[in-house]
Amino acid sequence: MSSCSSSCAWIASFYFICSEDCAGRRFVTTSRGIPGKKCGTIIVKAEELNNCRESVMMQFCGNKLDKKDFFGKSDPFLVFYRSNEDGTFTICHKTEVVKNTLNPVWQAFKIPVRALCNGDYDRTIKVEVYDWDRDGSHDLSESSAPAARESSEGRGPRL
């Protein structure tokens, strides 16, 4: 058994059943898995999903982004976050990295409205621009938080 499997064995004994009345709640439990080991805490948040079946096609480009790399230009990518009912944000999409440019054009992508804003077009979406680094320590370059409606009408973040 690998070290990850043995140290994470407690997950197999953890069961969570959520019925319809759990929306908007936060459940916290302490793991009791491996005797003598401190396994941590599991936090489960739930939000009732809208029955929206729409999808949106989006494409973004950047213009004169900040140069973040010491050598060359930037390697930018976008991270999209949906806002939750409790005010926190959850990643819902990441774009590809566009190498060595300050004026990137990202590929168009299709995303379900449920994933982006749970059908609420006035809900905030946070968009962050990162400069990709090989070591994984990506640098935050820009950040914007428009409502879903603004992005769908072409009035979204200015990158």
In short:
With 159 residues, this protein is mainly β. It has 3 helices and 8 strands.
For the structure shown, list the relevant keywords.
Immunoglobulin-like, single chain, disordered N terminus, 4-stranded antiparallel sheet, 159 residues, mainly beta, two-stranded antiparallel sheet, 8 strands, 2 domains
Say which CATH homologous superfamily of the largest domain is assigned. C2 domain
Give the CATH level 1 class of the largest domain: Mainly Beta
CATH topology of the largest domain: Immunoglobulin-like
**Radius of gyration over alpha carbons?**
20 Å
Given as residue ranges, the uncertain stretches (5+ residues, pLDDT < 50) are 1-23
Cα(first) to Cα(last) distance is 47 Å
Give helix % range.
under 10%
Number of domains: 2
The tally of strands reads 8
Largest sheet: 4 strands, antiparallel
Secondary-structure element sequence?
A: HEEEEEEHEEH
Strand content: 25-35%
SS-derived structural category: mainly beta
Number of helices: 3
Question: Roughly what is the average pLDDT, rounded to an integer?
Answer: 73
Strand arrangement within the widest β-sheet reads 5-4-7-8
Which of globular, elongated, flat, extended, rod-shaped describes the shape? flat
Q: What is the CATH architecture annotation of the largest domain? A: Sandwich
Task: Give an overview in words.
The relative contact order is 0.17. The longest helix is centred in the first third of the chain and has 5 residues. The chain is mainly beta and 159 residues long. The N terminus is likely disordered. It has 3 helices and 8 strands; from the N terminus they run H-E-E-E-E-E-E-H-E-E-H. The radius of gyration is 20 Å and the shape is flat. 9% of the residues lie in helices and 28% in strands. It has 2 domains: 43 residues, no CATH class; 98 residues, Immunoglobulin-like (Sandwich). This is Copine-8 isoform X2.
